[in-house]
Amino acid sequence: MGYAFSSGTELLDLTDKHGTAISDITINYSAEQQNLAGLDILGEMQRRLQVIREAIDLGMQHAERSASGLSGGDAQRLTAYAPDVPLLGQPVKQAITYSFAIMEHNARFGRIVAFPTAGSAGTVPGCLLAAAEALGKDDAALVRAMFTSAGIGMIIGNNAMLAGATGGCQAEVGSASAMAAAALTELRGGSPDQCFQAAAIALKGLLGLVCDPIGGLVEAPCVKRNATAIANAFMASDLALAGIVSNVPFDEVVEAMRNIGRSMPASLRETAKGGLAATETGKRVWCAVMGDES
Amino acid sequence: MSWQVFDIVGPIMIGPSSSHTSGAARLGKVVHELIGGTPETAEIQLHGSFAEVYKGHGTDIALLAGLLGFAPDDPRLRQAAEEAQQAGMTYMISCVDLGLGHHPNTAKFSVVRQGERLEVIGCSIGAGNVEIVSIEGIKTNYLDGKFETLIVMQQDAPGVVAEITETIAREGLNIAQMGVAREDRGERALTIINLDEKIPDDLITELACDERILWVKVLPIIY
């Protein structure tokens, strides 16, 4: 098992030892895994990219609201918005548009790729597809960047958590933002160390974020929190490429996230009993969804 | 569990929730495979968060989709209630409190197919992944649909587990993980064995010949 890693430090050492990128190590490690051996790993990732593209296309075509009325139409609204001075910048705006398309499609019982979860499914794909367009990168580069993001996600999953029910929104959208930040950095030619700096900066920015979905649904605030995660990921990637480093290294940020997640009360871990879910609006939606029985 | 690349970039699923929709569909699919097809009747009890927020996530139709044998990314999930009617599967879904020891996203299935009755409890542990926690009231370990799995219900007696593993060794298969639990001394016991290779039919036939073995099932990898 020459490519096995369980922490950021180990993964970074492997990139150093082999003189390759995070994506290469993740691809080689996956090829070694018993239950993935023999699978065309690059082809399977390309297939997932195709499902993501279909979800975006379908999400962009529809503007109707979801059954709950909490989401829908914002992907088209953002596409139509073209001010003289777009303060957000075109790649970020495009990334958010794609993420809305995916998340709105998801809320309509559409077919998506959880990345790493359904609630955070817009962040990494939105960032990578928009950045690839802006930078003129082909599908091979995109697929590699997806592996970079997966490497970061595996470390977070194995050392902390990736579910809102166990660690709050920081574990879903925070992890997705860190994964996207690292992948964007590799896509733009950053070093493996810069990728980890980007991931650390991105994750730190969203530490402590609670999971408080209105009506318990994967819609509000989830859809717009993917937008937050995207802007955060682009920011972190730019900072890392500027040579700015995180005072706390990536592995310790992951440990901090785990500890914060463990001390989060259940009401703020996907139970729809606290935070935004417990607001007047949140309670009204809960009653509507549950058919006024609670 | 140990996260791998397609657990992170995946699963490919029908929304909206990886735990409450995709995981629910996968649980149903595991039960479909265990009973050997679509059951004629299914009683499903939802516990915890499954019971509280199932409506908005379509947890109920996702469970039915799985019982019908649909994969978690099959678009027919949306019409699973109608599909169940067409397939002649009658079902009842209710909410229940299974107690504190259970994961918040737990479902208890009682299914009947061709005269066989099976009771399975499983939970959706996040990101579309599942864990079966008991079959016929006997605790299970390592049962998550990620391996080719051999499931044997046997008499709790000396040498039965050795008989099973020897048969596996003769077939040249490698055991990745295994667990054994029983109802009580001398009663029924359940052996779960995850294998690195595909399970050949003659292994099942050979094991079924032993009169101390009550039944043998295979759960394939569920993608």
Can you walk through the features of this model?
The complex is a heterodimer of chains A (about 290) and B (about 220). In chain A, helix 5 packs antiparallel against helix 6, helix 5 (about 90-105) packs antiparallel against helix 11 (about 220-240) and helix 6 (about 125-135) runs antiparallel to helix 7 (about 140-160). Chain A has about 290 residues and is mainly alpha-helical. Chain A is globular, with a radius of gyration of 19 Å. The longest helix of chain A has 21 residues, at about 40-60. In chain A, about 65% of the residues lie in helices and about 0% in strands. By secondary structure, chain B is of the alpha+beta class. Helices cover about 30% and strands about 35% of the residues of chain B. In chain B, a hairpin with a 2-residue loop joins strand 6 and strand 7. Chains A and B meet through helix 2, helix 3, helix 5, strand 1 and helix 7 of A and helix 1, strand 1, helix 2 and helix 3 of B.
Structure in a nutshell:
Chain A has helices at 8-18, 22-32, 41-61, 74-80, 90-107, 123-135, 139-159, 164-167, 169-187, 192-206, 222-241, 250-263, 280-289; one strand at residues 111-113. Chain A is mostly helical and 294 residues long.
- Biggest interface and which pair forms it? A-B, 56 and 42 residues
Provide the structure class of chain B. Answer: alpha+beta
Strand numbers in spatial order across the main sheet of chain B: 3-2-4-5-6-7
- Name given to the CATH architecture of the largest domain in chain B: 2-Layer Sandwich
Structural classification of chain A: mainly alpha
Q: Layout of SSEs?
A:
The complex is a heterodimer of chains A (294) and B (223).
Chain A: H1 8-18, H2 22-32, H3 41-61, H4 74-80, H5 90-107, E1 111-113, H6 123-135, H7 139-159, H8 164-167, H9 169-187, H10 192-206, H11 222-241, H12 250-263, H13 280-289
Chain B: H1 5-8, E1 12-14, H2 18-35, E2 41-48, H3 49-57, H4 59-67, H5 80-86, E3 90-95, E4 105-113, E5 116-126, E6 129-135, E7 138-139, E8 148-155, H6 160-170, E9 175-182, E10 188-195, H7 201-209, E11 213-219
Parallel strand pairs in B: 2-3
Antiparallel strand pairs in B: 2-4, 4-5, 5-6, 6-7, 8-10, 8-11, 9-10
Helix pairs in contact in B: 2-4, 4-5
